[in-house]
Amino acid sequence: MDVGLATMLGAGGFWTASGAVFAHQMRNGRFDMAKKVHQDMDPTASDQRWWIKIGAVTAVGALWLTGGIGYLLDRAWGLPLVKVALVSFLVEQLITPVLGPRHWKAYTGVVLGVALPLLIWTRL
Known about the structure:
The structure is a single chain. 80% of the residues lie in helices and 0% in strands. The chain has 124 residues and is an all-alpha fold. The protein is globular, with a radius of gyration of 15 Å.
């Protein structure tokens, strides 16, 4: 297994699980600490914006898992899924500043949104 595929599967699993944990914490009123330390979201954003972010993170994780597994099983069939997965991450990172435009953390993910898919694509 190459580095790009391993990264997709690992990150996809992490984001999917994180999304489930974050949703559980939000429903139970225990999400305040995560809001403070989250890498790329304004800690003062409304709960509605956090729900959008959580949904996006979970969807991107699921797409990365699907793309990675598809590519692992059949490269020709899985390659379009990988492309969709990588673009989904870029889109999610570009949407983050819209959800919290007044906070510097909202812009940190844009660089990651470009760099990580590029790194993976060059390693497949």
